[in-house]
Specification:
Elements: H1 6-9, H2 15-22, E1 28-29, H3 41-52, H4 66-79, E2 89-92, H5 94-106, E3 112-117, H6 122-129, E4 133-138, H7 147-153, E5 158-164, H8 176-189, E6 192-196, E7 220-225, E8 238-241, H9 244-257, H10 263-274, H11 278-301, E9 313-314, H12 322-328, E10 331-332, E11 334-335, E12 347-350, H13 355-372
Parallel strand pairs: 1-10, 3-4, 3-5, 5-6, 6-7
Antiparallel strand pairs: 2-8, 7-8, 9-12, 11-12
Helix pairs in contact: 3-10, 4-10, 5-6, 5-9, 7-8, 11-13, 12-13
Bound molecules: pyridoxal-5'-phosphate.
């Protein structure tokens, strides 16, 4: 057999999958990174209509249909403190592809990429796939990323730093002051800030603010997606936005690896972004109730958990052996080490699961804690 590329050999299949495989069929799965709600009916219907009337048969423009990019632009006017020209948007195959474009277009071999540790598994892998050098950065006690630590980690070889708020796997939300600092750092050090905002609407306390609102240069690119906000993980529709020059470079990658995002998904996403937003509010309200139940339950068990203020994850500090005891008892949680060395000694609990299952799982978590103490 021929040799594989060095790049691909540096990347392994996510540790999360191994956890799922270890669990039995009846397990309660608190390992999932996707909402447990249906995609709203009007969104599904928009795709059905686009398919039936033939609108989704052909390639769209590489960047995506203009009405979708206008809907994304209108979303920024409605929800965020900055405006986006529809010409400066590329619709992608989920936030995943958007992250890939951002890294691929900006990171040269050997250049460093700073990202949160524990952090979303793609940051390390995408850096390796671009032949860059991953620079995982430990977090504050509350599991947010410290702008001062980012600034100290920047070297002459740094191409980019990634931020993610609300965050996977921690549920942490960066403050407005932090975001202002991230923008300043990107401006002053002339490094790119890649802001992964796929959970932007799932915030319980405070407000999501993007560093894009404060940047004075064009050194911020923002990644967004319909996946989590509208419970559309299967549709594969996200986007990246940035300056004209950056979009033009990212489009070169997108054009050759993807051509365009799936057309039916683009029509669905347009309907999601322009239609009623109540389904989002209802989902976020349900997540907040569950978050409170999970936090109370973990406190009763005696597990110390930094309060997650967004997304749908909690990350308690857990005793050695606890994750395995949970999995043996039929509750899947993900060991924090799957998200980087900084996650060792923690576990990620996703509460994108119904309340009854959550309560049953908390009882099991208590037994698991008793078993290892
Ligand atoms: C922080 C973060 N960014 C990006 C993504 C990718 O999302 P998508 O499903 O839109 O590709 C995920 C998915 O879990 C995520 O947690």
């Amino acid at each position: 057999m021929t040799e594989f590329s060095r790049r691909v050999e540096q990347v392994s299949i996510s540790g999360i999958r191994e956890v799922f495989e270890a669990a039995g069929e009846d397990a309660i799965n608190l390992g999932l990174g996707q909402p447990d709600f249906p995609t709203p009916g009007h969104v599904r219907q928009a795709a059905v209509e686009a398919i039936e009337n033939g609108a989704a048969d052909a390639y769209t423009s590489n960047k995506g249909t203009l009405p979708l990019r206008e809907a994304i632009s209108a979303k920024y006017d409605r929800d965020n403190r900055f405006s986006v020209d529809p010409e400066n948007v590329i619709a992608t195959a989920g936030g995943s592809e958007a992250l890939h474009l951002a890294v691929e277009a900006h990171v040269d071999p050997g250049e460093e990429v700073i990202f949160p540790d524990p952090g979303f598994v793609s940051y390390d892998a995408l850096t390796n796939l671009a032949d860059g050098t991953p620079k995982p950065l430990g977090l504050r006690e509350d599991l947010t990323m410290d702008p001062t630590a980012v600034e100290e980690a920047i070297t002459d070889d740094t191409a980019a730093f990634m931020i993610n708020s609300p965050a996977n796997p921690t549920g942490a939300v960066q403050s407005e002051d932090d975001m202002r600092e991230f923008a300043r750092i990107a401006d002053e050090h002339d490094v790119l800030c890649i802001s992964d905002e796929v959970y932007e609407h799932i915030v319980f306390d405070g407000e999501h603010v993007s560093p894009m609102a404060f940047a004075e240069s064009d050194n911020v690119v923002v990644v967004g997606a319909c996946s989590k906000t509208y419970s559309m993980t299967g549709w594969r529709l996200g986007w990246v936005t940035g300056s004209h020059e950056r979009i033009e470079r990212m489009l070169r990658v997108h054009q050759y690896m993807q051509a365009c995002a799936s057309a039916p998904a683009q029509y669905a996403a347009e309907a999601a972004l322009t239609g009623p937003q109540e389904p989002v509010e209802e989902m976020v309200a349900a997540f907040e109730k569950r978050r409170d139940v999970v936090l109370d339950g973990l406190a009763d068990i005696g597990l110390d958990t930094p309060t997650p203020r967004g997304a749908f994850y909690a990350m308690p500090k857990v005793p050695e052996g606890w994750v395995d005891e949970c999995i043996d008892r039929g509750v899947i949680v993900v060991p924090g080490g799957a998200f980087g060395e900084g996650g060792e000694g923690y576990a990620r609990i996703s509460y994108a699961t119904g309340m009854e299952d959550l309560k049953a799982a908390l009882a099991v978590m208590g037994e698991a804690a008793d078993a290892v103490r």
